Amino acid sequence: FFGLFLRVPPFFVSAFIMPGTRKSSTIHGSSSDGASYENVDVMWAQELSQKTENNELEWYTKALDYWKSSEASVNGVLGGFEDVSPGDLKETLEFMREAQREIAPFGSARCIDCGCGIGRVTAAVLVHLFDKIDLMEPCSNLMDKAKTDVPAGKIGEVRLESLQNFHPEPKSYDCIFIQWATLYLTDDDLIACWKRCQAGLKENGIIFLKENVTSSGNFHIDKVDSSITRADAQYRQSFKAAGLQLLAVKDQVQWPADLFPVKMYVLQ
Predict the structure, then answer these.
(1) Whole-number Å distance between alpha carbons of 32 and 57
(2) What is the pTM of this model?
């Protein structure tokens, strides 16, 4: 998980949009087992060639197995770094309120928390912004905890599914909230997901993404939970490829210096 990744040179906090310029073919990578990759295409060629006996991608089955075995607690879903949770939640709520007030006047009727885990963000942030929050999570052990921790009157639909399989109804959400979930998607599935999410937004609706990024400008693969920590430029390229508009971006300020930085993106 993101907590395993060590940060390299400091990444300055930016509150405004700065265009990424590096092409994916020039972005190098490394992995937690010491491998190095000339570029992201080389990495995906290796990773996507690995299949299970049922012909499923190991990239996805390994990630799912990892989270099914994780403890359904704040410490469990944050990879042993539960101390980061209060600051994370505080800055998420502050930036979402700022976005609604000054950047994109999204409605307050319906939101979905994609990869909601135990409902940590829904219970502490989204309930203050939306009338109903749909919960989406592929692991039943985590979803069961979410359904007990989030006020029942705030819960909309409960969807036991993964982000790569998420197909929202057209124009159905004021906000699609995604935190620490896109790192489990392949690049192709990420772009396809963005397109479906964009179609699922109501007028003035937003996608709110919060993810770790590398400070080196290259990518990193975690072989333990089968995830990719992307460079900021890679995310920006995925937004452009999907036809999304990046309205604002902000760094998580209260964050340990020895972990990969976290960015928040507001998209339409």
Answers:
(1) 19
(2) 0.92
